[in-house]
Design brief:
- It is a single chain.
- This protein is mainly β.
- It is 13% helix and 40% strand.
- A hairpin with a 2-residue loop joins strand 10 (149-153) and strand 11.
Length: 230
């Protein structure tokens, strides 16, 4: 199945193929409803797609396809309160598969910079600003300064910290990432190597929203006891 690396549009129709309760493969139809970088206190390592198709127990990992038959991603968690599910984009899947194939684990990257998101001067947009540069780092040697506004990373426009997180996640560890910054109205370019973030563990599973946990039937006096596992 071909994969789509193009970010879907909000409102775009998609299909999932699931097997609820061990039934035969069953299609479900819905729309792309949003893009999230966190759930409650859990921060995702990249932006997840949210679709208006809730998943039941044991339906995680269902493929999500567009109407042209391209793989958009796979479901990883359901949010039944808003009748939605989170989807790992196909581009992220390919990156993770490549990491597992070569290193046996997902490789996370980092840059020797402290970045924050704040309103731009005109207050009509957001901007990512360098708040700190690691002493003795390649960023310091390259000349990046506190106060520089990051405009692009790897050719992708940067408006939010979510954009930064995505740009670093999809870059390969050891790859040089081209940053374009604004310093006093002047555009400057810097190439920084993406370093491996060894402090970051594999992402924990998303918290299971209430109402999605599989439940056992209630026991009555007439019920046969449930089998036990030795």
């Amino acid at each position: 199945m071909p994969s789509s690396h193009q970010k879907p549009r909000i409102g775009q129709p998609v299909l999932t193929i699931t097997s609820p309760l061990d039934f035969a493969p069953t299609p479900a139809f819905g729309l792309v409803s949003g893009f999230e970088s966190y759930f409650a206190d859990f921060v995702f390592p990249f932006t997840y797609t949210r679709i208006g198709i809730p998943m039941g127990p044991a339906e995680g990992g269902s493929p999500v396809i567009d109407l042209e038959g391209n793989l958009v991603g796979i479901t990883v968690a359901s949010v039944p309160e808003v009748r939605s599910s989170y989807v790992v984009p196909s581009r992220a899947l390919e990156k993770m598969v490549a990491d597992f194939s070569t290193r046996g684990a997902i490789r996370y990257g980092t840059l020797p910079l402290e970045l924050t998101e704040r309103p731009d001067q005109d207050r009509l947009a957001r901007v990512v600003v360098v708040d700190g540069v690691a002493s003795g780092s390649a960023a310091a040697s390259a000349g990046i300064r506190v106060g520089d506004k990051v405009r692009t990373m790897g050719g992708k426009q940067i408006r939010t910290i979510d954009d930064v997180r995505d740009a670093i996640f999809y870059a390969r560890v050891g790859q040089f990432l081209l940053l374009e910054v604004d310093r006093g109205g002047n555009r400057l370019e810097f190439a920084l190597m993406v370093e491996e973030d060894t402090s970051k563990p594999d992402p924990a599973p998303l918290p299971t929203p209430p109402g999605t946990e599989p439940t056992l039937p209630p026991q009555t006096e007439e019920s046969e006891p449930l089998p036990t596992i030795p």
